[in-house]
Write a structure and sequence with these properties.
Its cofactor is FMN. GO terms for molecular function: oxidoreductase activity. Pfam families: Nitroreductase (PF00881). Keywords: Flavoprotein, FMN, Oxidoreductase. Belongs to the nitroreductase family. By secondary structure, this protein is mainly alpha-helical. It has one domain: NADH Oxidase, CATH 3.40.109. Helices cover 38% and strands 9% of the residues. The chain has a two-stranded antiparallel ribbon. Helix 3 packs across helix 5. The radius of gyration is 16 Å and the shape is globular.
């Protein structure tokens, strides 16, 4: 299906290996690794170069649980994560903010894989705490 040249490409291998992880080990993710993941996320392209995306890193257990309650189904694994990175965008700054946030989220997932950190995208647009 793929040429040997493609299979030897590090980016191809990274994308091929990446999986959504919904069970976490309890192992701590260092601040340095989180910073590196965010540096990579900041390299994500955005429409018109506006970069309307912002990131909020959450380590506080109660806050992570409160974020998880914003989604009735699908956020079950979130409270067991050591860290959550919330991806937000300024809707007034760019009409393509959803796409920009999605691309930045994808960069986060690939960066997490590169650093051996399990990650899962949990979509919560237009949600309120239950």
């Amino acid at each position: 299906m793929f040429s040997n040249e493609t299979q030897e490409n590090p980016l191809f291998e990274l994308a091929r290996q990446r999986r959504s992880v919904r069970r976490y080990t309890g192992e701590k993710v260092s601040d340095d690794v989180v910073r590196e993941i965010l540096k990579i996320a900041l390299l994500a392209p955005s429409s018109w170069g506006r970069h309307p995306v912002e990131f909020v890193v959450i380590r506080d257990r109660d806050t992570i649980e409160a974020v998880a309650r914003c989604k009735r189904m699908g956020a079950g694994p979130l409270p067991t994560a050591d860290v959550a990175i919330v991806v937000m965008a300024d809707t007034a700054d760019c009409e393509l903010w959803i796409e920009d946030a999605a691309v930045a989220s994808t960069y986060i997932l690939l960066a997490a894989e590169q650093f051996g950190v399990g990650a899962c995208w949990i979509h919560m647009r237009n949600r309120q705490s239950q």
